[in-house]
Amino acid sequence: MLEITVEERAWPLLRPFTISRGTRDVARTVIVTLSDGKGRTGTGEAVPYPRYGEAVEDTVAELEAAAPSIASGISHDDIPRLLSGKAARNALDCALWDLEAAQTEKPVWKLAGLPRPAPLVTAYTISLGSPEDMADQARHNAGRPLLKLKLGADAAGDIMRLRAVRMAAPHSRIIVDANEGWQPDSLPTLFAVCADCGVELIEQPLPADADEALSRIIRPVPVCADESVHDIEDLPALRSRYDAVNIKLDKTGGLTPALRLASTAREQDFEIMVGCMLASSLAMAPAFLVAQLARWTDLDGPLLLAEDFAPSMQHENSVIQPPEPALWG
What we know:
Structural class: alpha/beta
CATH architecture of the largest domain: Alpha-Beta Barrel
Strand order of the largest sheet: 5-6-7-8-9-10-11-12
Radius of gyration: 19 Å
CATH topology of the largest domain: TIM Barrel
Distance between the termini: 21 Å
Helix content: 25-40%
CATH class of the largest domain: Alpha Beta
Number of strands: 14
Oligomer: single chain
Largest sheet: 8 strands, parallel
Shape: globular
C-alpha cells in the first residue's frame, strides 16, 4: 500500500524575475511524497505553469483525488492514465523513482540504465530588464561560464540588451530566450545581432502556434524549441523549424517521458537542452539525470531562490554536482 502526501510550497526569489510574459517574486511548486508503510519514502517536486493552462490548486486537487488509485500500487506507465496534468504527473513520477531507489537501495541512474552522473555547467539566467539593468546583472555574474538572457520585449530594445550584456560579460558563453516574444519580420536582424554577439543558442523566438516562419529563414545561430515541444509526437513537425529541443520535466510529465523524449530527439538529430521552471533543488535532481544527455543545461532554479530545499544540490560558479541520495534518487 502506498500513501501519498501533497504539499504546496512557495519559494521567495532573490529578486523579481521577469520574462516577456510578466514578473514574479515567488515560485510556487507542488511536492509529492510517497510512503510504502515500511519507512521508505520518495519525493518529487513540480511546477504547474499557467502558460500551459495549469494551476497549483488544480494540481493538488488532481493528485489528492488519485490517492485511492495510487494506494494499491502503481507503475510509471500507469501515471498518464491516472492524471491529466503534466505537473501532477511529473511530481508523482519523480516521487515514484525516488521511492524505488529507496526500496532497491540502488540510485535512480542505475535503475534507469543511465551512466553515472557527472558535474555539469548550468546556465545562469539574466532576468529581462532595461539594457542597463541586464548589463549590471551580467557584470555581477561575468565569472559564470554560461549566461542565459531573457528577451522578447521589443526588437530594438533586445538588440541594445544583447550588446550591453556582451560588453558587460565578454568572456561568458551566451544563450537567449525570447519566450515567444519576437515577430517574424524582426528575425533576420535579431538573428544577425545574436550571431555578431557570439550567442550560441536562441530559444523559442516565435509563438508555438505561429512558428512556421522559422522554416523559411536562414538560422545563423541554432534555434531551440521550448513551448513548441512537449512530447515525442511533437518532434516531426519541428524538423524544419528548429535545431534543438528544450526538455523540461514539467512539460513532458516526469522523468520517464523526459528520458524517452531525449532518446528520440537524439535519434532524429536534434541537439538537446534540459531546462527548468523556477523550483528548488528537489525538482532539479531528476532533471540533472536527463541533462547528462544534453549539450546545454539550464537548471539554475535554486540559484534564483532566496531559500532552497534541504538538503540542496551543490553549486560552485554554476557547476552543479550530482544530487546526494539524501536529496533525491
